Each structure stands twice: as structure tokens, then as C-alpha cells.
TrEMBL record:
Protein's GO biological process: protein maturation
Gene3D superfamilies: PurM-like C-terminal domain (3.90.650.10), PurM-like, N-terminal domain (3.30.1330.10)
PANTHER family, A to Z: CARBAMOYL DEHYDRATASE HYPE (PTHR30303:SF0), HYDROGENASE ISOENZYMES FORMATION PROTEIN HYPE (PTHR30303)
Gene name in the database record: hypE
Naturally occurring in which organism (per UniProt): Nocardioides donggukensis
InterPro entries: HypE, PurM-like_C_dom, PurM-like_C_sf, PurM-like_N, PurM-like_N_sf
Coiled coil location: none
Domain PurM-like N-terminal: 55-170
Name by which UniProt lists this protein: Hydrogenase expression/formation protein HypE
Domain PurM-like C-terminal residues, every copy: 182-328
Similarity annotation: Belongs to the HypE family.
Length: 356
């Protein structure tokens, strides 16, 4: 790549050469995020970077029990406001990294916590965030083993930003990854979608939707353990955070080369989320979730996995929402109630910035 990026090679849909400075869409988990990673960061890193880009890296480490591997993940949280219905940046930071580890089939064990604090932030607010971090870690059964704190000038930050990194162990025989989806597989979701993003937006903008919408933030490793306990070959697990279900399924389709077909009437979108998205002009499939997972499993094991999901408190609303098909490879489409289909595309930028 050389000392400076080669902008001439960068391409649509949102070429970075046309946006030479960072914009909010670069952090949205969609096409602009992917372009930033693939055409700036990876070339800059050169041979030091791994090619796979999962939510966590699964690494063979000498000394582990035969067949077991180390899972390692890191994530940063900049949600605004720090406190929102159903949660805060504190429990979000713990649950987010725990879930990234869980989506590789790992049992989360240890977390680091790093805080970037803005000068002038009330100590009482920082205390509330730290307390939420501690309670969420205890609930998830992980230890907080190292950390760091930095303070930036007033106006340089926004209250509290939190980075968490996590380590877990993937048991022998567990192989989960976005490239493993196959034609004929079934797509499952563990419950209602779009809840977290709308909860944060309602709080941020002071919107009223006739009912209180609370974030679904939760640690999902217990649910994952139940799914793996069925003995079914769970091929892919992902938590649809930034970019929502749309971005996550597009990433799976592109990584595995299959087409994915959803059935719109089977999507578990709560009425209040539908109403809010209609009011705000948003697509519920692109709204972030923080306590839901998508699973791609063989058709002959789908009912068994679905039953295991529904027996767990965090999967009681689980549903079958689609399947992997040979048609339209590397694309996601939704079958509408009128019998037609529409393309469910990868979001370009960010519908709702700063929601995780």
C-alpha cells in the first residue's frame, strides 16, 4: 500500500476517495465500514493482519486441552446517552464482548475494561457505569482482570466511552463461522428484532410511542451453550448489532456464497418497533439488537434447535425466519406478503448513529 492509501483503487457504493474524512457512516457496520476495513486498515496492516474478520478470533494456542482453542475479541462502546431504557453503556460493554465470544461457540472467561472519560463528567455518572459493568460481569460469570483509564479535555469526548476485550475457550469439536452456511440450511432468530436501537433513539430524541420500549441488552452465552448441547451441527451464530439483521445476513451470504431468503411475515418485529420505524423512516431489519442471535443450522436439526431456544428465557420468542438457497448467491431477499420479493441490501452507512 505504501506510505499513503491508493484512493484510485477504491470503489462504489460509497467510495472513500469521495469522502476523504471520516463520517458517521464509517462506524455503522455497513458497506462504508467494510470499505474502511478492507481498503484502508487491512492494506495498512499488511502481513500482520489475519484474513478472517469475525467478531472474535479463534486461535490455536499451545498448552490448551487437545482440540480446544482460544477466542479473543475486543469492542468499543460510544452509545449516547450513557443511560437508556433497559440498560446503560456499562452493561452494554460487558454483554457486547461476551456475545462476540459466544458467537464463536466460546465460553467467556475474562474481560478487560478501558475507560475514556471526558473532563467535567459527573463522578456519580461514572460510578453508575462502573457499577453496571460489575453487575453485568458477575451475571455473565466473567472476571474483570485488567483495565485502563484515560481522561480527555472537555469537549473532546462525550461523557464516558468504554472498550472491553474478552478471552474465552472454544471446546474441541465446535466449528462455527460465517463461511459454513450451506444451501438448504434454515435461519433462526432468538426473538424480537429492532428493540435496542429504537429504545436508544426514543430516549435520545424524547420520542413517545405509546408504550415503553426497553433495550434487549443481555449476555447470550448461556443460550448458545443450550443450542450446542442439542448436538446439532450449528453452522453459523451471529448477534445482529450494528446494521441489524440486514447487515449480518448479508455478511453471512457473502462469506458462504449462498443466497438467503427471508419470509417477511415470519420476522418477529414488535408492533411498537414497526410503528417507530414507520414514523422515523427506518427499516427494522437495519436497526441494532444487543440481546438477540441469528443461527444458521441444517434443516433436519432446525426444530430441535428452535425448541432449545424457546426453553431458554432469552430465546422464548425464537422463530424460523428464512433459509439458505442456491438462487441469487451472496444476496439476501425477503418474500413479501403479496408474494413478491425485495432485496435486503447491506446498509451503506448508519441509520441510527451512536447506539452501541
Amino acid at each position: 500500500m505504501g506510505e499513503h492509501p491508493d484512493f484510485d483503487g477504491w470503489v462504489c457504493p460509497a467510495p472513500l476517495r469521495d469522502t476523504p474524512t471520516i463520517v458517521m457512516g464509517h462506524g455503522g457496520g455497513g458497506a462504508m465500514s467494510g470499505e474502511l476495513i478492507e481498503q484502508l486498515f487491512l492494506p495498512a496492516y499488511g502481513g500482520a493482519a489475519r484474513a478472517d474478520l469475525g467478531d472474535s478470533a479463534v486461535l490455536a494456542v499451545p498448552g490448551l486441552r487437545e482440540g480446544a482453542r482460544l477466542a479473543f475479541s475486543t469492542d468499543s462502546f460510544v452509545v449516547r446517552p450513557m443511560f437508556f431504557p433497559g440498560g446503560s453503556i456499562g452493561d452494554l460493554a460487558v454483554n457486547g464482548t461476551v456475545n462476540d465470544l459466544a458467537m464463536s461457540g466460546a465460553t467467556p472467561l475474562y474481560l478487560s475494561t478501558a475507560y475514556i472519560l471526558s473532563e467535567g463528567t459527573a463522578l456519580a455518572d461514572i460510578g453508575r457505569v462502573a457499577t453496571a459493568v460489575g453487575k453485568a460481569a458477575e451475571s455473565a460469570g466473567v472476571q474483570l482482570v485488567t483495565g485502563d483509564t484515560k481522561v480527555v479535555d472537555s469537549g473532546s469526548g462525550d461523557g464516558v466511552y468504554v472498550n472491553t476485550a474478552g478471552i474465552g475457550i472454544v471446546p474441541a469439536g465446535v466449528e462455527i463461522g460465517p463461511t459454513r452456511a450451506e444451501v438448504g440450511d434454515v435461519v433462526l432468530v432468538s426473538g424480537d428484532i429492532g428493540v435496542h436501537g429504537i429504545a436508544v433513539m426514543s430516549c435520545r430524541e424524547g420520542l413517545e410511542f405509546g408504550t415503553r420500549i426497553e433495550s434487549d441488552t443481555a449476555a447470550l452465552h448461556g443460550l448458545v451453550a443450550d443450542l450446542l448441547g442439542t448436538g446439532v451441527d450449528v453452522r453459523v451464530l451471529r448477534d445482529p448489532t450494528r446494521g441489524g439483521v440486514s447487515a449480518t445476513l448479508n455478511e453471512i451470504a457473502r462469506a458462504s456464497g449462498v443466497g438467503i431468503e427471508l419470509v417477511e411475515r415470519d420476522l418477529p418485529i414488535p408492533p411498537e418497533v414497526k410503528d417507530a420505524c414507520g414514523l422515523l423512516g427506518l427499516d427494522p431489519l437495519q436497526v441494532a439488537n444487543e440481546g438477540k442471535l441469528l443461527a444458521v443450522v441444517p434443516a433436519d436439526g432446525a426444530e430441535q434447535v428452535l425448541e432449545a431456544m424457546r426453553r431458554h428465557p432469552l430465546g422464548s420468542g425464537a422463530a424460523r425466519i428464512g433459509r439458505c438457497v442456491a438462487e441469487h448467491p451472496r444476496m439476501v431477499v425477503a418474500r413479501t406478503g403479496l408474494g413478491g420479493t425485495r432485496v435486503v441490501d447491506l446498509p451503506i452507512g448508519e441509520q441510527l448513529p451512536r447506539i452501541c
